[in-house]
Design goal:
Blueprint lengths: L2 E5 L2 E3 L5 E8 L7 E7 L6 E6 L6 E3 L7 E6 L4 E6 L8 E8 L16 E2 L3 E5 L2
Parallel strand pairs: 2-11
Antiparallel strand pairs: 1-3, 3-8, 4-5, 4-9, 5-6, 7-8, 9-10, 9-11
């Protein structure tokens, strides 16, 4: 059974950067598309970015385009989310999720399309 674990969260100042990692175990990540989602207090979970199994197709929410970059290293069974120019609005719990069912070019969300989820990692953007 595929298991996912996020890491790299923490407290960062506005304008700062963080890199999140999503490490897989139990199964190779080679066959899965990966999505990053976030959920802020009092808000619904929203899709942030996604990447195809090969890494050849990516997508981003309009709110993070140009500032966030998703990538993957299938040799390490790890997916990354580089977050630059962070804003207070980015404060949320961030989750990675995996799915075997997706289309190309890959499209963003919804969460219901992803059956495998990590436990989440907290990102707080504050001065």
């Amino acid at each position: 059974q595929l298991q996912l674990v996020e890491s790299g969260g923490g407290l960062v100042q506005p304008g700062g950067s963080l890199r999140l990692s999503c490490a897989a175990s139990g199964s190779t990540l080679d066959y899965y598309a990966i999505g990053w989602f976030r959920q802020a207090p009092g808000k619904e979970r929203e899709a942030v970015s996604c990447i195809s199994s090969s890494g050849g197709s990516t997508n981003y929410a309009d709110s993070v385009k140009g500032r966030f970059t998703i990538s993957r290293d299938n040799f390490k069974d790890t997916v990354y989310l580089q977050m630059n120019s962070l804003k207070p609005e980015a404060t949320a719990v961030y989750y990675c999720a995996a799915t075997e069912t997706y289309q190309l070019p890959i499209t963003l969300g919804p969460a219901a399309d992803y059956p495998y989820w990590g436990q989440g990692t907290q990102i707080t953007v504050s001065s």
